[in-house]
Amino acid sequence: MEFKHLVEAAEKWCSGNPFDLIFAEEDDERRLDFYAEPGVSFYVLCPGGTDSFHVWSESEDCLPFLQLAQDYISSCGKKTLLEVLEKVFTSFRPLLGLPDLDDDSFEHYHTDMEGEPGPDQQQMGVSQQ
């Protein structure tokens, strides 16, 4: 994909979340830099052929959160820039003060599973006579 199309896709992605595209360079490396308050930053090196994407941060605080995205990129199959950015966003949710999506899904599932048994469900426990 042409670099200008990657930049356009990154700018569109930024419109739906707290990140801003703060730098885009094609000369030395095809690199997109992103930043969000409170000091969350990362960059993406875009493939220039058969290579895959690479994500990294120069912030020591951010690096551990990128492991999920790095594992995703190195897994089988080609990834798009938007897929990589979404995985990075998911990884950084705790740093951004946003709820973890996995926790929300579990809470919703757990809440649905609680409640009174229906008329055709047997209640567990000791019956009193």
From TrEMBL:
<dbReference type="GO" id="GO:0045654">
    <property type="term" value="P:positive regulation of megakaryocyte differentiation"/>
</dbReference>
<feature type="region of interest" description="Disordered">
    <location>
        <begin position="106"/>
        <end position="129"/>
    </location>
</feature>
<dbReference type="InterPro" id="IPR027892">
    <property type="entry name" value="Maturin"/>
</dbReference>
<dbReference type="GO" id="GO:0005737">
    <property type="term" value="C:cytoplasm"/>
</dbReference>
<protein>
    <recommendedName>
        <fullName>Maturin</fullName>
    </recommendedName>
</protein>
<comment type="similarity">
    <text>Belongs to the MTURN family.</text>
</comment>
<keyword id="KW-0963">Cytoplasm</keyword>
<dbReference type="GO" id="GO:0023051">
    <property type="term" value="P:regulation of signaling"/>
</dbReference>
<dbReference type="Pfam" id="PF15167">
    <property type="entry name" value="DUF4581"/>
</dbReference>
<keyword id="KW-0217">Developmental protein</keyword>
<feature type="compositionally biased region" description="Polar residues">
    <location>
        <begin position="120"/>
        <end position="129"/>
    </location>
</feature>
